[in-house]
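Design request, tokens follow.
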């Protein structure tokens, strides 16, 4: 027992020292020559591992951007300063999954515990971005009685418009999509902000509402005992929470099912993320209810769904397919050894490392035989690129799919396939992910040698099994219906309402 306690103590001390070293390194300056080496390393690894690097940008143009960036380094920079110079070039590649990890301060367990006992400051609002403006559209706790529709003009006397312009350069969708940035930027705006400015206990904001300017001081309040008890209750995983994939952070479910009318003819499935967790049980239960009710219409809502599991979307499609189908084309990668570059031991503690070491030969064997060569190209074996049979008694009625600029990655894969197969009517706006596929699958996490910034590189070219449109944009809706900020504030849903009216019109016939 003494030896065990000593091991725990040593691990804790090692962790604290590691965090301290990382934070010191984050604050240290890197010489111009070392910054240039990090740029060269980044480009070299992208050329080695990214299977479609020049999809949306020519090699000549990308060469020029990296060379031009290196010429700007005439003085030392911290890793964070370097990030804000390198990431815009990465974003110009126009691959939505490809992005440097922003170097942020690491927290000790004690610091994390202290933050957990405090309420968020900016996270207690919901936001909306329009051009260079940031609006509050929901005030969850009625903080300072700030009304939805209030624009935040500045934070600590610095104009918000400047932050938006700066952060927008860090974000790209797949290709030349025009809808993704506002959705994603509103979700990550304060991730960038706190990485730059740290976690403060107060913030001074200037606002504008109905032509009237006001100022407020936001505070990071301590949670009450009631709040802490509520947090514990939310963390408990009941059967319902598992099947509907409950997210404690937002106190919401990733998956929801219901009927929209009294006669149960219209079923509605909302999926916020294709997380795969308990998804098979969820879809089986949902489609059993749809079948038993004799529903004629199905609405699948993947708005604001940034993607996730190919397995889940393949399973979902099987409940709607009229005949056997193939979801995706064979997934290409750069070489047969690429799958072995996925950082097998990443984020492993001492005990996990020991276990993984024993299993490593099996892992290498499996990955080696997961690739094959055809027509001079290398592919990775995937279940989703094989023929899949529809589920027995799959839904045969009419399907509508709600999409918007927040529909990304796997959401775009399934909607592109549904549209191509003429299995659904897409309603809303262009998706944030590309119609013709993306590069993701699994990743190789590269660490830049001097700045120590992490660069996850997607290794698989994943494309829906369709005839490509080559627009270099998102999946286009069949019916364009826009949603305004005022719609959100008023809890109106014009996209869903359009579908409900269309169904009512068809029923009336």
């Amino acid at each position: 027992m003494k030896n065990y306690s000593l091991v725990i103590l040593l691990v804790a001390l090692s962790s604290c020292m590691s965090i301290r070293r990382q934070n010191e390194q984050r604050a240290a300056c890197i010489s111009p020559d070392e910054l240039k080496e990090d740029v060269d390393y980044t480009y070299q690894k992208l050329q080695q591992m990214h299977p479609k690097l020049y999809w949306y940008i020519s090699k000549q143009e990308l060469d020029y951007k990296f060379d031009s960036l290196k010429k700007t380094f005439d003085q030392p920079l911290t890793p964070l300063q370097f990030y804000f110079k390198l990431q815009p070039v990465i974003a110009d590649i126009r691959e939505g999954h490809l992005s440097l990890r922003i170097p942020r301060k690491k927290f000790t367990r004690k610091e994390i515990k202290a933050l957990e006992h405090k309420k968020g400051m900016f996270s207690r609002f919901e936001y909306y971005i329009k051009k260079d403006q940031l609006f509050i559209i929901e005030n969850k706790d009625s903080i300072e009685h700030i009304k939805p529709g209030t624009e935040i003009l500045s934070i600590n006397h610095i104009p918000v418009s400047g932050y938006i312009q700066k952060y927008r350069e860090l974000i790209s969708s797949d290709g030349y999509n025009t809808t993704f940035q506002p959705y994603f930027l509103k979700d990550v705006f304060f991730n960038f902000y706190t990485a730059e400015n740290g976690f403060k206990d107060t913030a001074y904001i200037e606002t504008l509402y109905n032509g009237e300017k006001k100022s407020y001081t936001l505070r990071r309040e301590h949670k009450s005992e009631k709040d802490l008890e509520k947090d514990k209750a939310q963390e408990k995983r009941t059967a319902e929470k598992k099947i509907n994939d409950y997210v404690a952070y937002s106190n919401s479910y990733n998956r929801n099912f219901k009927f929209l009318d009294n006669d149960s003819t219209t079923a509605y499935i909302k999926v916020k993320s294709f997380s795969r967790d308990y998804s098979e049980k969820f879809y089986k239960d949902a489609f059993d209810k749809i079948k038993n009710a004799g529903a004629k219409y199905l609405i699948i809502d993947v708005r604001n769904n940034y993607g996730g599991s190919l397995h889940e979307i393949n399973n979902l499609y099987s409940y709607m397919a009229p005949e056997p189908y193939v979801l995706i084309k064979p997934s290409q990668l750069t070489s047969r050894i690429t799958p072995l570059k996925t950082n097998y031991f990443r984020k492993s503690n001492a005990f996990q490392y020991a276990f993984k070491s024993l299993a490593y030969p099996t892992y290498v064997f499996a990955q080696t035989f997961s690739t094959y060569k055809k027509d001079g190209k290398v592919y990775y074996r995937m279940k989703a690129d094989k023929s899949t049979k529809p589920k027995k008694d799959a839904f045969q009625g009419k399907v509508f799919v709600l999409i918007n600029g927040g529909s990304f990655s796997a959401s775009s894969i399934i909607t592109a396939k549904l549209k191509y197969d003429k299995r659904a009517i897409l309603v809303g706006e262009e998706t944030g992910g590309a119609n013709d596929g993306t590069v993701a699958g699994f990743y190789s996490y590269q660490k830049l040698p001097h700045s120590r910034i992490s660069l996850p590189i997607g290794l698989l070219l994943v494309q829906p099994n369709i005839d490509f449109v080559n627009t270099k944009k998102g999946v286009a809706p069949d019916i364009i219906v826009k949603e305004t900020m005022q719609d959100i504030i008023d809890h109106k849903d014009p996209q869903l309402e359009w579908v409900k009216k269309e169904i009512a019109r068809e029923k009336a016939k």
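Comment from the thread starter after seeing the answer: thanks! Residues 41 and 158 are 35 Å apart (CA to CA).
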